[in-house]
Amino acid sequence: MGADRSYAYGAAAGLLGDLLLGDPQRMHPVAAFGRAAGRVERVLWHDHRGWGALHTLVCAGGATALGALAARAVRPHPAASAALTAAATWAVVGGTSLAREASAVGRALERGDLAAARARLPHLCGRDPEALDADAIARAVVESVAENTSDAVVGALVWGAVAGVPGLLGFRAVNTLDAMVGHKSPRLRRFGWASARLDDAAGWPGARLTAVLAALAGDDPRGAVRAWRADAHRHPSPNAGPVEASFAGALGVRLGGTLSYGGRIEHRPVLNGTGRPVEVADIGRAVRLSRRVGLLALGVTVAGRLIGRGRSR
Predict the structure, then answer these.
(1) Is there a contact between 169 and 89 (Cβ–Cβ < 8 Å)?
(2) Taking residues 163-176, what's their average pLDDT?
(3) What's the pLDDT at 279?
(4) pLDDT (tens digit, 9 = 90+) per residue, 135-155?
(5) How far apart are CA 130 and CA 203, in angstroms?
(6) What is the spatial distance between Cα 130 and Cα 132, in angstroms, rounded to a whole number?
(7) What value does the mean pLDDT take over residues 174-198?
(8) Which residue, 291, 217, 283, is CA-closest to 20?
């Protein structure tokens, strides 16, 4: 069994593990990384981009180096290499947890329990739930499902195909650092700059692949492409824009508009303005689209790795 086939079997097994088991309930590796990164932040924090860059290098570089050392140790043993890839894929991919959280909010809205939906929403995104009615919560969930399909599934698979276990761990480390410090708050505006910019760069290929696959797997491929081309560039995030626009067009709904983060009101551009407002039932549709995109991404990235390595020999 060659190295590329070891990766293919391992990635497939890891994604299957996520589908069947979801994230570990205790001792999650990503949570452990977050705690370690938080301790490093407390030591290194200065209101300066250079110190933030050092924080990013130490944390993301450390995770990538750990993955490289582990991959090198098992390289002579194909079965162990596949097992390591499976474990790493399972640890960094979060598609099932994303689907569970989105579905939990959807069920609360379906039974009219707005308080429960508001209480559950922070598990999925950082918006102020008390400022949202049922329709706005449903829209927030669909937007979060779209964005996190790229961040929590497709992006990791892309970098895994490019760089194996180091790519898987490195991508998740960068994405986690962005969630922790890549905010525009007064304390983190400069310190988190490097993490935010690196996350934009690392997420670029996965976001475009997610948008393409959402168009292929959705109910309205032409609508997805049309919304992507017309509206993605208007979104403040270079990666969330294509993904959310493609999901909006694929589902036939309208995303974007006014939202609130940490008491700060933002007026986002409307994506797929010809679509209808999001309804509660669209949460389930978005979850199913996300799962199809994740499975397609596994096939595309594994095939790309096998074909690319085969041509390089």
Answers:
(1) no
(2) 97
(3) 96
(4) 999 999 999 999 999 999 999
(5) 30
(6) 6
(7) 93
(8) 291
Question: Phi/psi class of residue 262: alpha, beta or left (left: φ > 0; alpha: ψ in -120 to 50)?
Answer: left
Alpha-carbon distance of 261 to 127, in angstroms, equals: 5
Q: Provide the pairing of β-strand 264-267 with 258-261.
A: antiparallel
With beta carbons less than 8 A apart as the criterion, state whether 142 and 254 touch: no
Cα separation, 177 vs 153, whole angstroms: 17
Give 91-118 pLDDT, tens digit per residue: 999 999 999 999 999 999 999 999 999 9
